[in-house]
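seq as requested:
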Amino acid sequence: MRSTRTRRRPGTVCLFTLASLFWIGARANSDADIPEQLCAGEAGQLAIRKRLNDTAFAVCLKGAVWDVLSCPDGLAFNDTSEACQP
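struct tokens:
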């Protein structure tokens, strides 16, 4: 009786592993760590918002990133009011 299980070739596994490592390295060097850097100095108990770009902001709480949000279309983040405004 023949086995119906397919076998992967070693080259496929190696290629997948290499691609995964490249993806992890690219994520580590991307903007994903910017919210953490913005929030690192904030030790207050209350949540504050910090600008990531014109339409996105990070919500910091006790020095850590609580959430990353974007303003709806047509609105931009205002640093003074910490809110999305036209």
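The first strand starts at residue 48 and ends at 51.
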